[in-house]
Amino acid sequence: MMTAALLAMTLVRAHHVRSFHIHPAPLDGWEASEREDHRVVQQQRYTDWHRVERTLTRFRREIAALLEEGWHRDVGIQHE
């Protein structure tokens, strides 16, 4: 049974896109991914909730830093 994503955020600036996603994995655990433009920066599957929490904290800090640098939320994407 799939549930909602823990984090789904896409940021844009000029012609660049950064996206951060953490969602339940199909069978067990969670999948986390970070993309920059069309390149996968990180993609990891976790079964340990504490690792998911650390990744979620890191993604939120990165998102906050990018927003401070002038990045904007992509209004066409559903957010956290």
Element-by-element helix/strand order = EEEEHE
Please tell me what the overall shape is.
Answer: elongated
Look at the structure and give the mean pLDDT: 91
Number of structurally distinct domains: 1
- Can you tell me the residue ranges where pLDDT is under 50 for at least 5 consecutive residues? none
Number of H/I helices: 1
Describe the structure concisely:
With 80 residues, the protein is of the alpha+beta class.
What secondary-structure arrangement, pairings included, does this model have?
Blueprint: E1 7-13, E2 16-24, E3 30-36, E4 39-46, H1 49-68, E5 72-73
Antiparallel strand pairs: 1-2, 1-5, 2-3, 3-4
Plain-language structure description:
With 80 residues, this protein is an alpha+beta fold. It has one domain (7-73). It is 25% helix and 41% strand. It is built from one helix and five strands, in the order ββββαβ. It has one helix at 49-68, and strands spanning 7-13, 16-24, 30-36, 39-46, 72-73. A five-stranded antiparallel sheet has the order 4-3-2-1-5, with helices on one face. A hairpin with a 5-residue loop joins strand 2 (16-24) and strand 3 (30-36). The mean pLDDT is 91.
Descriptive terms for the model:
alpha+beta, 80 residues
